[in-house]
Amino acid sequence: MLLRVASWLFQLPGRLLAPIFRNRLTLLIFFMLVAAGVLLAKRHWSEGVQEESFTLAAPQNYVIQREAPLRESRQHCVGPLSDNQGSPWPTSAGYLHEPDWQAGSKLQTLALDNQHNEFAVLVKLENTSKQLLAEVFLPAASSFNIKLEPNGRYVMKVKNIHSGCSFRTALSVADRPDGRLPLTFSEEGPEQYHPISDRDF
Known about the structure:
By secondary structure, the protein is α+β, with helices and mostly antiparallel strands. Helices cover about 35% and strands about 25% of the residues.
């Protein structure tokens, strides 16, 4: 009895595969399925190896220092700006684009303070709708008074003329009781300057 069962099991693969090998089309389909199975198994194995290697390597680069955003922003710095789109930079602080306020508007003076920097800056003031209100140039160690609506909220963009790096900060005149805004480019404190690309300036 055991010999008959063993003989039947030994002959079973031949009986199952015999119909396949009798027909050329069936034989071709069989080998195509085998090849597809081998390729899928190889691909699955290689993806598993890559995922495992990525998991092991990830902790080494996961910790990002706080200065990384500033370092990444320097990739967008365009270098020294020798002129203002073909025109020489002014020799003193002043408007390049003066705000057009309506007659009788109640305005408040705000001093842009660049006195602690050894480089000139270009300042753009926009409203919350990204409409350009004013553009100001300040040489190194200078300041300039601008007129703004006391209850208005603005976005100020500042470009370092020497390095070409750009920064952005939110601005509200009501939050400046002393009437001065230091251009410190710090990411901490009441004036938080965030690095931006030249395209976003």
